[in-house]
Amino acid sequence: MAEAVTIQVEPRDPAKNKGTGSRASKRLRADGRVPAIIYGHKQDPVPISLSNDDVAMMLKKSVHLAQLSWEGKSEMAVVRDVQWDHLGKDIIHLDFLRVSAGETVEAEVALEMHGEPVGLALGGRLEQLVRSLKIKAKPDAIPKSLTLEVGGLNVGDAILVRDLKGLMPDGVTTEAEESVMLVHVVEKKAGSAADTGDEGAEGGGEAEGAKSEA
After folding, report:
1. Which end of the chain has the lower number of beta carbons within 10 A, N or C?
2. Which of 99, 126, 147 is the last residue of a domain?
3. Can you give the residue range of the structural domain that contains 67?
4. What is the pTM assigned to this prediction?
5. Whether residues 124 and 68 fall in one domain
6. Torsional sign, CA 133, 138, 142, 147
7. 135 and 81 within one domain
């Protein structure tokens, strides 16, 4: 379950030549910082910035919940949106939503696979169609990821959103369509890229409440 990670941030103040426009954001990134904003709870938005090291740590640890601290202030927030550059390599902006411990919030968590499908030995190919899922939970109940057990999948088998019922941690729900297919094992086609020895999961399309890799 999620634990708030304390991160020291800096306010973006035009009076201190930090600014909040696109040029100022580019200067921040050149200085090794990522622009961000905190909003919500009917309070004024606060433009801030984080160090590249802190952003890298958040990615590595799949941080969803953060205690943001600056100039004697501290606010608990969840990551609401992440903007990447056009190559999908670097994060160029983060949105944080203020939260309180007892409220239910929306978050997007990664879907990870565990096991090797039995269908691979029978000529199948594993495809992961959806890479992340929108869930709702209290801030301290947000899981770092959701694990899909794929070891029992044969050729033609699939895991759908409806199959996650009973597997979700307590207090975690999703409004994604139950018929959305998350992962499946399909028969290899002669001459396909998978026949060259690449049996890793492949990406696919998108669905409401779920997100695939571009």
Report:
1. C
2. 99
3. 5-99
4. 0.73
5. no
6. negative
7. no
Based on the domain organization, do 95 and 113 belong to the same domain? no
d(CA 210, CA 176): 6
Start-to-end CA distance of the chain, whole Å, equals 27
Cβ neighbours of 103 (radius 10 Å): 10
Region of 63 on the Ramachandran plot (φ > 0 left; ψ -120 to 50 alpha; else beta): beta
What's the pLDDT tens digit per position in 151-209?
A: 999 999 999 999 998 889 999 999 999 999 999 999 987 655 544 444 455 554 444 56
Other beta carbons within 10 angstroms of residue 196's beta carbon come to 8
Name the CA radius of gyration of the chain, rounded. 20
CA separation for the pair 75, 67 (Å, rounded): 6
Domain CATH code at residue 124: 2.170.120.20
- Residue 106 tokens read as 């929306």
pLDDT tens sequence across 137-149: 999 899 989 999 9
